[in-house]
Amino acid sequence: MKTDPPIGTFTVVPIVVFVLGLVLGTWTWMLWIMGAFVVAAVILEIIRMKVTR
Are 41 and 17 in contact (CB under 8 A)? Predict the structure, then answer.
């Protein structure tokens, strides 16, 4: 069984925002919040991909 990484825009956008926050030196608490959103987006995208198969 082949598993593809989530590639939807729902996942890509939060990851890009998180990486930009790291590069720009955002406050630690904000990075934690953005990281939580990234993890949630990836989990939701994986669930969405499995359901739509």
Answer: no
Rounded to 10 degrees, what is the CA torsion of 9, 31, 44, 47? 100
Work out the angle at residue 6's Cα, subtended by the Cα atoms of residues 15 and 9, and round it to the nearest 5 degrees: 55
* Residue position matching structure tokens 């082949």: 2
Instruction: Look up the pTM and report it.
Output: 0.61
Calpha distance 19→28 (Å, rounded): 13
Task: Count the neighbouring beta carbons within 10 Å of the beta carbon of residue 46.
Answer: 16
Q: Which amino acid is at 26?
A: T
Q: Which tens digits make up the pLDDT trace of 4-40?
A: 555 566 677 777 888 888 888 777 778 888 888 888 8
